[in-house]
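Course assignment 3, question 2. Fill in each field.
Student: A.L.
Task: Predict the tertiary structure for the chain below.
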Amino acid sequence: MEEAQPRNPRPVNPPPRLRRYSPQKGERVLALPRIVAACSSCRDFTGDVTEFEVEARTVREAIRELDRRYPGFGEHIERRMAIAIDGEIHQDALFSPLTPGSEVFLIPKIGGG
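Answer field:
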């Protein structure tokens, strides 16, 4: 009878460690809306950063700030991402208001016809 091989408790290739955006020296830190990029295509623009805090009153302002930090990311969001604010998906989210406690999730749009 063959002896059972012990299971390796660690994955061979662990997933990359996710990082949050850290404000740069001189940036103001307030209670800000939290943006979560829940899509691997976003990492093409942001590296491993998947959570952001931005000073913004609307989704449009938040997208502009993300595009300032990560050039091209804003256009990617507008073309390919759906936006959920505090658990509710919005069809036309650009002018939706954000509060300091808002959670905004960027999720892939579902295509179809």
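Instructor remarks: The beta strands are 19-20, 34-37, 49-53, 81-85, 88-90, 103-108. The radius of gyration is 18 Å.
Grade: pending
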